[in-house]
């Protein structure tokens, strides 16, 4: 899937197959998730994208070629990658924080991505993650950025623990992932959205309470009332000035807000109730992907049934249908994560 101008309908066309650089591999794409960041990229909201472009950043597949310096991977390995790949050699990577690497490789953003039969991945030894035998490609691709970023948000950034109240603003792919993960940790989760179908899914995935923002006078007060004084942890899973504000404002003292939903374009600088941040000693975090070395913790929770990301997978489509879904994403109300299989 290829576009030469932002906002122009992507075309499905034959392009030369990629070759691996010395430290990279080429992966045959078996499944690749469709995500709102692909839509933002296509709209021209992402300064990392140079035209012409092939989008796609949530992928799972098989290694089919390796560069001469690659030591850990061989043809036939079943793999995925975090959407932010680290270089392995900068101070951030040295500290174990590849998700904020100084020289990021992001398939589908800084380089051509996975809405294709083959994708080249750089820094393969640092970033490839082996798929557990039991995990199918569609589920692995659907972990893409939403599930893994939520995992980092809930587990590593928010340090959520059993019995805490966790408010999740927005019950799309990111929010539902966060609800499932926080519930698995033993937290009491409140799902907030404007769609009854999404709130129903939120309950099915473990939310103990839901708030429909269109049906209450004040979302912040509703969360405070349910949680007996405010959430310990609150996540803006949508990325909107209103949900961001509510997520900070509904915290109890010393609570932690994590911004996961992207804030781009004219929404990039939302209002934050900074007086409450000071007076109540609130903590504000971002969550930007996850390091390849943190997948192990997630795999063990999936393999033992504590997390079931299969429940988040929606329909599987081909590249043509994926292009249509991408351009329609702003009006797209499908529940669950749409996965493209380039081989059908
Ligand atoms: Zn780095
Ligand atoms: Zn994504």
What's this entry about, in short?
This protein is α/β, with parallel strands linked by helices and 344 residues long. It has helices at 36-43, 91-94, 124-127, 137-157, 173-184, 196-204, 219-226, 241-249, 274-279, 295-303, 319-327; strands at residues 25-33, 58-66, 78-80, 118-121, 129-130, 165-169, 188-193, 209-212, 231-236, 251-259, 283-286, 313-317, 337-340. Bound molecules: zinc ion (ZN) (2 copies).
Helix content: 25-40%
Q: How many beta-strand runs?
A: 13
- Mass-distribution shape: globular
The secondary structure category is alpha/beta
Mean pLDDT: 94
**Order of secondary-structure elements:** EHEEHEHEHEHEHEHEHEHEHEHE
Number of helices: 11
N- to C-terminal distance: 14 Å
- Rg over CA atoms, rounded to whole Å, is 20 Å
Q: Could you tell me the strand content as a percent range?
A: 15-25%
Sheet bearing the most strands, described? 7 strands, mixed
Uncertain segments of ≥5 residues (pLDDT<50)? none
Q: What hetero molecules are in the model?
A: zinc ion
